[in-house]
Amino acid sequence: MKLPEDRTLCAIGLDWKKQVRRIPLPLRTEWTPTKKKNLVTKMKTTVDLSEPSTFQEAVNGPDQVHWRKAIHAELKSMRLRGVFRAAKLPNGQRAIGTKWVFKIKRKADGSIEKYKARHVAKGFKQKYGIDYTETFSPVVKYVTLRMVIAIPKYFGWPLDQLDVVTAFLYGIMKEQVFCIVPEGVELEGNFDCLELVKAIYGLKQASRVWNETFDEFVCSIGFQVSAFDPCLYIKVVDGHCVLVLVYVDDVLITGSSPELIARMKTDLKTRFEMTDSGKRQCDDVPAALCG
Predict the structure, then answer these.
(1) Is the dihedral of CA 220, 141, 287, 26 positive or negative?
(2) I want to staple 67 with a disulfide (CB 3.0 to 4.6 A). Which of 41, 58, 72, 127 is the partner?
């Protein structure tokens, strides 16, 4: 259903402030510790003692079956994305170190939901001008996030959320970077390292090249980048407006046309492997998207 002319968001990129003033934004809540000395005790711990710290601990420990599956899934994902290619380290070049990072994802009740393994680069050993140049990647403004959550509430629009699976592995490398062979992988032939074709987690430029990849695709299907926030994309078709907001690998989509939203989701899933969280309530957006 088309919106009345005075309520359309077609001009959101042209008249941003007026549109924002008309929409009541969610209140921002803050948490303040009652006593400074209690700050440490009130912080939630993020360390799980059952998570292995090394590859050998993972594949030889009590949960080795689960960790081996997680490692296999990570390597399979990298192979499907074409992240590496076997190489011979050129003279004068050096290979960046890598490591395995293991994480147990738990449900709200504390039970185990998923075992996750990530093969990451030791980006702190990269040298500027050799292994990387630009690293900046835009992050959505908090006011933009609040506005995109408030808009569907105000107009009665649907709000969908998607998550890009292993998002950083889609970013195409511009620099020539080599890394050591991951533990658990053996190369055939006269090769002694891997050349990175795509970015991996831990690289200084990983977030930037992923953002460039996502930006290029979204703009190629008719969206325009907002002049006020590079993480907000806008598309207007026959008086209907669709908004796409990206925060690293999380995507929010809302708009006045369910058909256009469905088309956008199909386009994204065609290009990227995604997890579809479906319709979300305006007050049910994960904290990861709220800063």
Answers:
(1) negative
(2) 58
Cα separation values, 43 from 29, 30, 35, 111, 288, Å:
17, 15, 13, 21, 17
CA–CA gap between residue 123 and residue 96 (Å, rounded): 8
Number of domains in the chain: 1
- Residue-wise pLDDT tens digits, 237-287: 999 999 999 999 999 999 999 999 999 999 999 999 999 987 776 555 554
Q: Is residue 41 part of a domain?
A: no
Taking the C-alpha atoms of residue 162 and residue 1, their distance in angstroms, rounded to an integer, is 24
Q: Is residue 33 in a domain?
A: no
Phi then psi for 120, rounded to 5 degrees?
Answer: -120, 155
Of 177, 52, 173, which is closest to residue 118 (Cα–Cα)? 52
Taking only the tens place, the pLDDT of each residue in 179-225 is 999 998 888 888 999 999 999 999 999 999 999 999 999 999 999 99
- Amino acid identity, residue 158? P
Q: Examine residue 133 and state whether it is found in any structural domain, yes or no.
A: yes
Structure tokens given for 13: 């990129």
Range of the domain at 113: 50-289
According to DSSP, residue 178 is labeled E
Task: Give me the amino acid identity at 6.
Answer: D
- Residues in CB range of 200: below 8 A, 6 or more apart: 78, 83, 98, 119, 120, 121, 168, 169, 179, 206
- Beta-ladder partners of 161: 252, 278
Please give the full DSSP string across 201-247, using - where no structure is assigned. TT-TTHHHHHHHHHHHHHHHTT-EE-SS-TTEEEEEETTEEEEEEEE
- In a domain? residue 8: no
Nearest to 155 by CA among 256, 10, 274: 256
Rg of the chain (C-alpha set): 22
